[in-house]
Amino acid sequence: MRTRHDGGPDARRERGLRERYGITSVEYEFLLGKQGGRCAICQRLPRTQRLAVDHDHTLHGKASVRGLLCMTCNRSLEYVVGAHERVALLHEEGRCACAHCRYWNDPPAMIRGRVVAGTPS
């Protein structure tokens, strides 16, 4: 519930990023810059909304953040996740090169299995 003293939209956004994903707005901007301001899957620039923080719902905090996606790609991942399991052999052999699978196998918030979204340099 909003109160008169909730700090305004910037403070609410900061609080939301921290509570939901364990990142700050500085870390969000770092990841956005790392992605060139574009969706990590389709590479389109956002038109009207900020990019959504894609995260693993089974984890909490920075370790769960995979990257920033446009709403279309973020929604489409729920369908790709199931397909990902069905075509695991293609992925293991490196034969699947669709944008969703490249993102899923190498999310921009990770480098060599280490979270980098929270470490702007």
Describe the 3D structure.
- The chain is an alpha+beta fold and 121 residues long.
- The longest helix is centred in the middle third of the chain and has 16 residues, at 71-86.
- The chain has one domain (8-115): His-Me finger endonucleases (His-Me finger endonuclease fold, 3-Layer(aba) Sandwich), CATH 3.40.1800.
- Helix content is 43%, strand content 11%.
- The chain is globular, with a radius of gyration of 15 Å.
- Strands 1-2 form a two-stranded antiparallel sheet. Strands 3-4 form a two-stranded antiparallel sheet.
- 20% of the residues are buried.
- The termini are far apart.
Short summary of the structure?
The chain is an alpha+beta fold. Helix content is 43%, strand content 11%. It has a single domain, classed as His-Me finger endonucleases (His-Me finger endonuclease fold, 3-Layer(aba) Sandwich), CATH 3.40.1800.10.
Relevant terms:
alpha+beta, two-stranded antiparallel sheet, 11% strand, 121 residues, His-Me finger endonuclease fold, 5 helices
SSE order: HHEEHHHEE
Residue stretches low in confidence (pLDDT < 50, at least 5 long) are none
Mean pLDDT: 76
CATH homologous group name: His-Me finger endonucleases
CATH architecture assignment name: 3-Layer(aba) Sandwich
**Backbone shape:** globular
Total tally of structural domains: 1
Kindly provide the radius of gyration, computed on alpha-carbon positions and rounded to a whole number of angstroms.
Answer: 15 Å
CATH topology: His-Me finger endonuclease fold
